[in-house]
Specification:
Distance between the termini of chain B: 48 Å
Largest sheet of chain A: 8 strands, mixed
Number of helices of chain A: 10
Helix content of chain B: 10-25%
Order of helices and strands of chain B: HEEEHHHEEEHEHHEEEHEEEEEHEE
Helix content of chain A: 10-25%
Shape of chain A: globular
Strand content of chain B: 35-45%
Largest sheet of chain B: 6 strands, antiparallel
Structural class of chain A: alpha+beta
Number of helices of chain B: 9
Shape of chain B: globular
Oligomer: heterodimer
Largest interface: A-B, 86 and 93 residues
Number of domains of chain B: 2
Number of domains of chain A: 2
Strand order of the largest sheet of chain B: 3-2-1-4-5-6
Structural class of chain B: alpha+beta
Mean pLDDT of chain A: 97
Number of strands of chain B: 17
Mean pLDDT of chain B: 95
Strand content of chain A: 35-45%
Radius of gyration of chain A: 23 Å
C-alpha cells in the first residue's frame, strides 16, 4: 500500500501540489433480502480503488481509479493536478487548511463475532424465521426483511507524513410488516424504519432479537388498518427513539454542518439557518434539557472511527449545550473560519468520493430524572409516536414535517389506543425549545442510518444517533387531507 | 473505449465471466458489466470548490444453480479478482434455498444482439475535459456577476459502457453519455433562483443561458412576503413537474407495486385530466436514451397514462413471469427487491406557451421547483415537500411578487386530475428515477400546509 500512496503523493507534489492526500479503500459487503418468506436476494460485493486529493495554488482537485497500479497512480495524480488547475480558473479565495498533528496508527471496530465468518445459512435462517413469524400474522399482506454487513479497509496517507490504517465493520437488520386494505397501506418496522444498524459484529444482530419482536410489530401493522385516524391539533408528543433519532438527524445534525452554513452545499442539499453569528450570540436552539454532541468515539455508533478522512483524530464535539448552540461539525478548511480546529467530521463514501463534512454520532444526551416510561407516566394527555414513515425539511432546515408509522394515545399517564397516519410539523428551534423531558441513561438507544445522502456526485454515509426518547409540548399534529 | 485490461470492451469481459460461471457449475448466469468515466465540477460562492473525476468498473454476476440464485459483484477485473468473484457467487448459491417460482433468466427477443441505441452517445461528452467544464462554470458565474448575485451548482459529464451477457443468449452492449448542469443563484438580499438542463451531448447545454435564468430569478425573489397556507391554483415549472412524474413512477408505475397492491395504477383508472399523457420510452431522443435494461432486455415504449387514464406499467423478468407476459425492459441490477422502474418517462406537451400559463390564473402561485418531497400516504400518492428557489404570487394573470417558501401536503393524483393546461415547451431533466421530459403545468388546486422563514 505504501508504494502506491507514496507514488501518488510524489506525482502530485512533483506536478505542483502544495498538499495532497490519498486514500486506498477496499470495501466488502453482503446482504440478504427476504420478501414474504421468499429469499429475494443474497449478494456479496467487493470494490477497491484509490482517490487522490490535491491543493494546487489554493484550489482543489480530486481524481480516482479502481486500478491499484503504480502507473495508474501517476495518471490519476497528474489528472488531479490538472483538475485543480482548472478549478483555479474560477477561484476567489485560496483554500487554507488548519494545522493538525501528523496522524499515524491503526483503528479497528471492536467485533466479537465476525459477521463475514458466520455461516451464510445461519444468517439466512435466522432472518427467515423472523420474516415468517411476521408473515404468519393474519392480515399481513407482505413482509420484507433484510440483513446487511459492510467492512471497509482504509489506508490514508498525506504529504505531511500522516499514514493511518482503519478497519471498520457495520451490520444491520430489519423486519417490516405491511398490511393493505383498499387504499389503506400500513407498515410497522422493527427495530426502526431504516433498519437497526450499528458498528460491531454479528452480536449486534443477535441483540436485536428480530424473532422476538417480529410478530408484535406485524400485529400492530394489521391493527393500524382499523385504527382511527390520528387526531389533529396542537398537543403534547413523546417521541420514541425510533423516531427521535431521525428528528435529531434532520433538525440538529444537518443544520450544524459548517459547509452548509458557508453555502458549499447550496445547489443540492441546501444551506442552514444556523449562521455563524448565532454561534457568537449563543443562540438558544432548545430548552435547557437539550444537549447534543457529535461523538466519533461513541461505542457501537456508525459514526465511530479512529481518524476522519482528513487524518483528524476522532473526538466528541459539543454542538448544543443545555439548549445553547456552541459548535459545528467542521473540517480542516472550514474550522479556521470560526477560529477553531477541525472537529474531525470529514468522511468520504469510498475511494471514488472526496470527504465532506458529515455527521459522526450526533447524540441527544440523556438527562437524569425520568426513564422514557416514566415520562409517559408523567404525561396526562398526548401522543406517543414511533418509527418514522416519512420526513421532509426545508433547505435551511427550519420547517420540518414527519410522519410516523404508529401513534398511541396517552391519557392519565398510560398508553392507550392506536392511531393511524400520524404526522407532526414545526420549526426546528421552536420544536427543540418546547422539549420539557428527556429520558435518562436507561432509555438511551444507539441507532443509525446507513443512507444519509449529501454531495454531488451523491454520497451515502453511515451515521449514528443515540437518543433516550423525549417529550415536546404544544406541537402541531395532523397535516393534510385524508 | 473504457479500459478493461485484458479484455476488448465490456461485452468481452462479460462473456469471459459468463464462461467462468458455467465452468463453475452455473445452470444459468447473467453478467452485467458497467464501466464509467465520470467527472463533476462543483461551484459555490461563485468559485469552483470541488472538482472530481473517477474511473470505475463493476461486474455483477447472477449465478443460478438449478433454482438457487446468488449475486456477487466486484470492482476487480484482474485474473484473481474475476476468479474470486465466481467462487463467491457459486459458494452463495450452494447455501441458498431453492426458489420455487424462479422463472429463469429472460431470453433474447429474436432480433439479435443489441448494440446501442445510437442516440445514447455523444463524443463531446465522452471527451469532456476539466477545462471544458470550468469554461461552462465561468459562464454561469459571469451571468451571476452581471446580476450581482452568487452562483452555486455543478456540471457533470459522464461516459458509461454497459454490457449484458447471459447463458440464455442475450448479448447487449451500449455506450452512453450524459451531462447535467444545475445552478442556484442567491442574491445578497435573500433571493434565490434555479435552472437546470440535462443532455446526452454536453455541448448542447447553454451554460450562460442557465446562469441568466437563475440569476434573474434570484433578483426577482428578493423581498418575499409570507403567504398563509391554504389551497391555491398553481403553475408548476418543469422542475416541479419532474417531481410529480418521478414520484408517480416510483409509487405506481412498477409492476411489482401493482402485484403487491401498493400501486394506484389500475388499467382503465382515470388519474389525470385529458392533458396528462405519460410514456416510458428509452428510445426518445428528447430524453437520455437507453436501449436495454440491466437484464439485457430491449426497452419497450410503455404507455403509462393516456389522456389521464392508466394503461400499463413497466415489467422486469420476474414480475413479467408472475404476470404471464414478457418483460418490457425495465429491470434493475440483481439482486433487486424494489422491482422494475420507468427510467425514461416522457410527458406530452400541451398547446399553451409556457409564459402564458399564468395568464389563466386569477389568483394563485407560480412555483419553480419542489424540495425534499416524501410520500406521506403512498397509495393515495399524498406527498409532502417544500417549494424552493422561486415562488411567486399571481393575480389577474400577472406575477405581483415573490412569496416565502411554503410546505405542501398534496395528493399527486388529485393534482394530475386538476391539470388545466400544459406548456408547449418541455425540458429534459434528471430525476431520482433517471431522466424525464416534462412540460410546465397549470393545476386548479394545490394544498399548502405550512410556511417557513425564507
Amino acid at each position: 500500500m505504501r508504494d502506491l500512496t507514496q507514488r501518488a503523493l510524489d506525482t502530485a507534489t512533483q506536478l505542483g501540489a502544495a498538499y495532497a492526500d490519498v486514500r486506498i479503500v477496499r470495501r466488502r459487503d453482503e446482504s440478504v433480502s427476504i420478501k414474504s418468506g421468499r429469499l429475494e436476494g443474497v449478494s456479496s460485493g467487493e470494490t477497491e480503488g484509490f482517490g487522490i486529493r490535491v491543493l494546487v495554488d489554493g484550489a482543489w482537485g480530486f481524481a480516482s481509479s479502481h486500478r491499484l497500479e503504480l502507473d495508474e497512480a501517476d495518471r490519476v495524480g497528474a489528472l488531479a493536478v490538472r483538475i485543480a488547475r482548472a478549478s483555479g480558473t474560477a477561484l476567489r479565495d485560496r483554500v487554507a487548511l488548519d494545522d493538525r498533528p501528523t496522524a499515524t496508527g491503526r483503528y479497528e471496530t471492536p467485533v466479537a463475532e465476525d459477521p463475514f465468518k458466520i455461516p451464510l445459512e445461519r444468517k439466512i435462517g435466522e432472518l427467515m424465521a423472523a420474516d415468517r413469524a411476521a408473515g404468519g400474522v393474519p392480515g399481513v399482506a407482505f413482509t420484507e426483511s433484510s440483513y446487511g454487513a459492510q467492512r471497509e479497509w482504509k489506508t490514508f496517507a498525506a504529504t505531511d507524513g500522516s499514514f493511518t490504517e482503519q478497519e471498520i465493520t457495520h451490520v444491520g437488520a430489519a423486519v417490516e410488516s405491511n398490511a393493505i386494505e383498499g387504499d389503506e397501506h400500513q407498515r410497522r418496522s422493527y427495530p426502526d424504519a431504516g433498519g437497526g444498524w450499528g458498528a460491531g459484529g454479528y452480536e449486534f444482530i443477535r441483540g436485536l432479537d428480530l424473532l422476538g419482536n417480529a410478530e408484535r410489530h406485524a400485529e400492530e401493522a394489521v391493527a393500524l388498518l382499523s385504527a382511527p385516524q390520528c387526531p389533529s391539533g396542537r398537543m403534547t408528543v413523546i417521541l420514541d427513539p425510533s423516531q427521535l433519532y431521525l428528528q435529531v438527524h434532520e433538525s440538529c445534525g444537518h443544520p450544524t454542518e459548517l459547509d452548509r452554513v458557508y453555502g458549499t452545499e447550496a445547489s443540492y442539499a441546501g444551506t442552514s439557518f444556523l449562521t455563524t453569528d448565532k454561534l457568537a450570540e449563543g443562540f438558544r436552539y432548545g430548552s435547557d434539557l437539550v444537549t447534543i454532541v457529535a461523538d466519533a468515539t461513541a461505542p457501537g455508533g456508525m459514526g465511530t472511527f479512529g481518524w476522519d478522512d482528513e487524518g483528524v483524530a476522532a473526538q466528541a464535539v459539543p454542538l448544543i449545550q443545555n439548549g445553547i448552540h456552541v459548535g459545528y461539525l467542521t473540517s480542516r478548511e472550514t474550522a479556521p473560519r470560526i477560529g477553531r480546529s477541525s472537529g474531525g467530521s470529514m468522511r468520504a463514501d469510498g475511494w471514488n468520493r472526496i470527504p465532506l463534512i458529515r455527521m459522526t454520532n450526533v447524540n441527544l444526551l440523556p438527562v437524569d430524572g425520568m426513564s422514557l416510561e416514566e415520562i409517559v407516566a408523567d404525561t396526562d394527555d398526548g401522543l406517543y409516536l414511533a418509527s418514522n414513515r416519512s420526513w421532509s425539511i426545508d433547505d435551511r432546515r427550519l420547517n420540518f414535517q414527519f410522519a410516523t408509522e404508529a401513534a398511541w394515545e396517552i391519557k392519565g399517564g398510560k398508553r392507550g389506543r392506536l392511531y393511524k397516519n400520524p404526522t407532526y410539523t414545526g420549526i426546528t428551534y421552536e420544536f427543540w425549545r418546547s422539549c420539557d423531558a428527556v429520558g435518562d441513561a436507561s432509555s438511551f438507544v444507539m441507532l443509525g442510518t446507513p443512507n444519509c445522502g449529501k454531495g454531488e456526485p451523491s454520497q451515502g454515509a453511515h451515521v449514528g444517533h443515540g437518543t433516550p426518547g423525549a417529550r415536546f409540548r404544544d406541537i402541531q399534529v395532523g397535516v393534510g387531507k385524508w | 473505449m473504457v479500459s478493461t485490461p485484458g479484455h476488448d470492451g465490456s461485452l468481452a469481459l462479460a462473456e469471459d465471466v459468463l464462461a467462468r460461471a458455467i465452468a463453475a457449475g452455473a445452470t444459468e448466469a447473467e453478467v452485467v458489466v458497467t464501466e464509467e468515466d465520470g467527472a463533476l465540477t462543483r461551484f459555490a460562492n461563485s468559485e469552483i470548490h470541488q472538482n472530481v473525476a473517477e474511473s470505475n468498473v463493476n461486474v455483477n454476476l447472477r449465478f443460478v444453480a438449478g433454482r438457487r440464485i446468488a449475486v456477487a459483484a466486484s470492482g476487480r477485473t484482474d485474473e484473481e479478482g474475476l476468479r474470486a468473484l465466481v467462487k463467491r457467487a457459486a459458494a452463495i448459491a450452494r447455501t441458498c434455498d431453492e426458489l420455487e417460482d424462479w422463472a429463469g433468466l429472460p431470453t433474447p427477443d429474436g432480433s439479435g444482439p443489441i448494440l446501442g441505441a445510437g442516440g445514447a452517445y455523444s463524443r463531446a461528452t465522452a471527451e469532456a475535459t476539466p477545462e471544458f467544464r470550468a469554461d461552462a462554470v465561468r459562464a454561469v458565474i459571469a451571468a451571476a456577476d452581471a446580476q450581482g448575485v452568487l452562483a452555486y451548482g455543478s456540471f457533470a459529464t459522464s461516459r458509461e459502457q454497459v454490457a449484458v451477457a447471459t447463458t440464455t443468449g442475450i448479448r447487449a452492449e451500449e455506450e452512453r453519455t450524459s451531462s447535467q448542469l444545475i445552478t442556484v443563484s442567491m442574491s445578497p438580499d435573500g433571493g434565490s433562483g434555479y435552472a437546470e438542463a440535462a443532455a446526452t451531448d454536453a455541448s448542447t447545454i447553454d451554460a450562460a443561458a442557465l446562469g441568466r435564468e437563475a440569476a434573474a430569478k434570484a433578483r426577482s425573489t428578493e423581498g418575499a412576503i409570507s403567504l398563509p397556507a391554504g389551497d391555491y391554483p398553481v403553475v408548476l415549472e418543469e422542475y416541479a413537474v419532474l417531481d410529480i412524474v418521478d414520484m408517480a413512477g416510483y409509487l405506481g408505475f412498477s409492476a411489482l407495486a401493482v402485484q403487491e397492491q401498493r400501486s394506484f395504477a389500475t388499467p382503465g383508472r382515470r388519474i389525470g385530466s385529458d392533458l396528462v399523457t405519460i410514456v416510458d420510452d428509452g428510445a426518445d431522443p428528447a430524453g437520455l436514451p437507453m436501449a436495454f435494461d440491466y437484464e439485457g432486455v430491449r426497452k419497450e415504449r410503455v404507455m403509462l397514462v393516456e389522456a389521464g387514464v392508466c394503461r400499463d406499467v413497466v415489467y422486469d423478468a420476474q414480475t413479467a413471469a408472475r404476470g404471464g407476459r414478457r418483460s418490457t425492459g425495465h429491470g434493475l441490477p440483481a439482486p433487486n427487491s424494489y422491482g422494475p422502474f420507468p427510467l425514461n418517462m416522457v410527458m406530452s406537451e400541451g398547446s399553451t406557451p409556457r409564459d402564458e400559463l399564468i395568464a389563466g390564473m386569477d389568483r394563485g402561485l407560480l412555483v419553480t421547483r419542489f424540495w425534499y418531497t416524501n410520500p406521506v400516504h403512498p397509495k393515495l400518492a399524498i406527498v409532502t415537500g417544500m417549494t424552493r428557489d422561486g415562488t411567486f404570487l399571481v393575480e389577474g394573470g400577472r406575477i405581483v411578487g415573490p412569496v416565502r417558501n411554503l410546505r405542501f401536503t398534496q395528493s399527486y393524483l388529485d393534482a394530475l386530475a386538476a391539470v388545466t393546461a400544459a406548456s408547449r415547451e418541455r425540458r429534459t431533466l434528471k430525476g431520482f428515477l433517471g431522466s424525464a421530459v416534462v412540460p410546465a403545468l397549470r393545476i386548479d388546486s394545490w394544498t399548502f400546509t405550512g410556511t417557513t422563514e425564507h
